[in-house]
Amino acid sequence: MNLRITVWLLVGELCLLVLLGCEVATSVRITDGPSFAFDGSGRLVFFRIYGPRPGRKIATPVDVKSLMWSIEPTSDFTSAAFVAGMTIVYGKVPRDYTQKFPASGSALPLTIGQVYVFDTETSGAPGVNGFFYMGQNGPIQINVPGLCGSAFVGDVKPVKCGTSEPYVEPKDMEKFVQENRVQK
């Protein structure tokens, strides 16, 4: 009987080690504020919001020239907070984090009728990015199919993914948002 219990305990410990060693991709749910409620197994290395360039309604991913707000850990990323259970409210810097952009003052204001990009990097698990539309009644998380940035640095332009053709924004933004809303 003792051998059987010992085997089960060893199997249980092995399962626990496997579970603890697994990384869980970062996920986010957007609510009023906007607020970003995170889950996953990683630590938050940075959180950024990008806005549309003048004359556009949809932000382009990783377009540093359209950065609206950015935070990073106060010390190195190894001391960054776990994302599980973390909530970040736009413009409010969490404890143990520092606002990197803007260098001083408040986060740039968000405009109703525009689509923004959120982007995170985490250590220990994949990060997450996506889009949200600032509607009259608050933020709406959406997908923007086919929109990519032309580069990761420099003069980033909105292009159709996999091509160098310009990305053409939809004419009816309300219809586009309803058709591409992320289901919770």
Question: What do these coordinates show?
Answer:
- The strands form three sheets. A six-stranded antiparallel beta sheet has the order 6-4-3-7-8-9, with no helix packed on it.
- The chain is globular and about 45 Å long.
- It is 15% helix and 33% strand.
- By secondary structure, it is of the alpha+beta class.
- It has helices at residues 2-21, 173-179, and strands spanning 27-31, 35-39, 43-50, 67-73, 87-89, 97-101, 115-123, 129-135, 138-142, 147-149, 158-160.
What is the ordering of alpha helices and beta strands?
A: HEEEEEEEEEEEH
What number of structural domains do the residues give?
1
Terminal Cα separation, in Å?
A: 49 Å
Percentage of residues in strands: 25-35%
- What's the total helix number? 2
Q: What strand line-up does the widest sheet have? A: 6-4-3-7-8-9
Runs in which pLDDT lies below 50 for 5 or more consecutive residues are 6-20
- Average pLDDT works out at 86
Please bin the fraction of helical residues. Answer: 10-25%
- Count of beta strands: 11
Major sheet characteristics: 6 strands, antiparallel
3D shape: globular
Structural class of the secondary elements?
Answer: alpha+beta
Radius of gyration: 20 Å
